[in-house]
């Protein structure tokens, strides 16, 4: 059964996930708005990351999973990414920090 993360754990995990950078855009997955939710699988004692990609055909899931494993090393013992496609990602999900990062990289957003 999945439950919500305690607020302090949520913040810790979210901060760690800022080390996961979309290889095509050069901005972290949190500020891109790719993380839809974080939960906890009580049965398997694992973090569940509800995450999407900028497009369903993105070939970089393996890269993002590897980066996620590195970012969460020492934060949680186990995690699982639940790839979510609905609702589809859109640029309105990008945080203000993410917009600043994208502008610094030359994106007109």
Automatic annotation (TrEMBL):
Pfam families: FeS_assembly_P
Domain of life, per lineage: Bacteria
Record-linked SUPFAM superfamilies: Fe-S cluster assembly (FSCA) domain-like
Designated name of the protein: MIP18 family-like domain-containing protein
Domain called MIP18 family-like: residue spans: 11-75
């Amino acid at each position: 059964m999945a439950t919500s993360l305690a607020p302090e754990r949520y913040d810790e995990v979210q901060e760690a996930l800022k080390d996961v950078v979309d290889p095509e855009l050069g901005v972290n997955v949190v500020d891109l708005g790719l993380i839809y939710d974080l939960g906890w699988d009580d049965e398997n004692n694992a973090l569940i990351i509800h995450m999407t990609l900028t497009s369903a055909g993105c070939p970089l899931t393996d890269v993002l999973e590897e980066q996620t494993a590195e970012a969460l090393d020492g934060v949680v013992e186990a995690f699982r990414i639940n790839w979510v496609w609905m609702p589809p990602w859109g640029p309105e999900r990008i945080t203000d920090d993410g917009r600043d990062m994208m502008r610094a990289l030359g994106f007109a957003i």
